[in-house]
Design brief:
The protein has 146 residues and is of the alpha/beta class. It has a single domain (2-75, 88-142), classed as Rossmann fold, CATH 3.40.50.9100. Helices cover 32% and strands 19% of the residues. It has 5 helices and 5 strands, in the order βααβαβαββα. It has helices at 20-23, 28-38, 52-61, 82-89, 129-141, and strands at 2-8, 42-48, 69-73, 95-99, 121-124. The protein has a 5-stranded parallel beta sheet with strand order 2-1-3-4-5, covered by helices on one side. Helix 4 (82-89) links the parallel strand 3 (69-73) and strand 4. Helix 3 runs parallel beside helix 4. The longest helix is centred in the last third of the chain and has 13 residues, at 129-141. The protein is globular, with a radius of gyration of 14 Å. The termini are close together. Bound molecules: 1,3,4-trihydroxy-5-OXO-cyclohexanecarboxylic acid. 1,3,4-trihydroxy-5-OXO-cyclohexanecarboxylic acid (DQA) binds at residues 11, 73, 75-76, 78, 99-101, 103, 110. Residues 11, 73, 75-76, 78, 99-101, 103, 110 line the site of 1,3,4-trihydroxy-5-OXO-cyclohexanecarboxylic acid.
Length: 146
């Protein structure tokens, strides 16, 4: 079974309560329930941390966990973490970056992503659908060999 990991960075544990006008009203549990229902053919494992080092430790463990692909919303670390970028660059599995909000339509500091250049692609501004589209893409690529 294709195993896809989904990582959320700082402040994304408070989805549903955090600025719902920007990030939506669904909690992460609501979103995960929908994803698991939508992709019964995949094994979806999620992880969230507010700590850069914990995120990097988890990313480093992915190959031992036999992951086939990674979807990551690095939160604000997108715009500031060279360390997270290096950890993603070292992975041999495909990585898709997702943002709930349109990072190009907000404060100018959000338009720069340090992490997107080491990902297959970036999805931004489509809300929770971004996770759905990223997982669908990874599964289609993996019909055979993600
Ligand atoms: C975010 C966008 C980031 O700029 C912000 O710091 C977040 C959430 C998004 O999903 O839209 O924490 O990654």
């Amino acid at each position: 079974m294709t195993k896809i990991h989904i990582i959320n960075g700082p402040n994304l544990g408070r989805l549903g309560r955090r600025q719902p006008e920007i990030y939506g009203k669904q909690t992460w549990n609501d979103i995960m329930d929908d994803l698991r229902q939508g992709f019964p053919q995949a094994l979806l494992e999620d992880f969230q941390s507010n700590h850069e080092g914990a995120l990097i430790d988890y990313i480093e463990s992915l190959e031992d966990r036999a992951a086939n692909g990674l979807v990551i919303n690095p939160g604000a670390l997108t715009h500031q973490s060279y360390a997270l970028r290096d950890a993603l660059a070292a992975l041999s599995i495909p990585v898709i970056e997702v943002h709930l909000s349109n990072v190009h339509a907000r404060e100018s500091f959000r338009a720069q992503s340090l992490t997107a250049p080491v990902c297959v692609g970036q999805i931004s501004g489509l809300g929770a659908d971004g996770y759905r589209l990223a997982i669908g893409y990874l599964l289609r690529q993996g019909e055979g060999n993600v």
